[in-house]
Amino acid sequence: MAPSKKMPAKQTKKQDALNKEAFKLIAKLEKAKAEIARGKAEEAMLVGEHESKKAAYAREAERMDKQKEAHREEHKNKMKKLREETAKAKKKLDHVRFQPVEDNVELKLEKEKTNMSQQKGRMIAAERKLIEEDVRKNGGEPLDWQRCQICTEPFDQDRKPKVLKCSHTFCSHCCKRFHKNVAISCPIDRITTTVRLRAIDSLPENLALSDLCL
Ligand SMILES: [Zn+2]
Ligand SMILES: [Zn+2]
């Protein structure tokens, strides 16, 4: 009886188990390789990140240095300008201090003032002449604008034109008439001007009117 060429069943089973083990090991190896590759890639990424961060820090440091330099320069310029301005002001002051005082400045000013008031007087006189003409044409009666709007009496030394807070002008008599409690209520717009009865004479006078009426 020839011996069987087939391996005994027991041996085949053992071979299968070995094969399985080998496959498992290969799979593990592949996994490990992949992990290593991933690790390397990660490391490369981290290195890259680190490098770019380093570059960014370097740029930031450079920027700050430049800024500091610019601030220093600005400060220097400011100080220089300030010093120059101070020197200029001092020079001006010295100039003023050592300039002989012109003693006739006040005199000149006084003269100018007199000139102006004389001119104003002449203008008013001319205006009054024209108004007198108008009054004459009006039969000797004062013109409408020369009269108080309320009582229609002409303004005069006794009936001075008084200006209320609302800017309306009435004669002092009417102001007294419309006075109630401690105020005058404007008969046109009802705006009140707070004033004591005794103080009505001290209300501001409408000088533009007085000049041409009184
Ligand atoms: Zn008024
Ligand atoms: Zn009046």
Automatic annotation (TrEMBL):
Keywords assigned by UniProt, alphabetized: Metal-binding, Zinc, Zinc-finger
Disordered: annotated span: 56-80
MF-aspect GO terms: zinc ion binding
Record keyword Chloroplast present: no
InterPro entries attached to this UniProt entry: E3_ubiquitin-ligase_RING, Znf-RING_euk, Znf_RING, Znf_RING/FYVE/PHD
Domain RING-type: 148-190
Domain of life assignment: Eukaryota
Transmembrane segments: none
The keyword Metal-binding appears for this protein: yes
Descriptive protein name: RING-type domain-containing protein
Organism: Caenorhabditis brenneri (Nematode worm)
Lineage of source species: Eukaryota, Metazoa, Ecdysozoa, Nematoda, Chromadorea
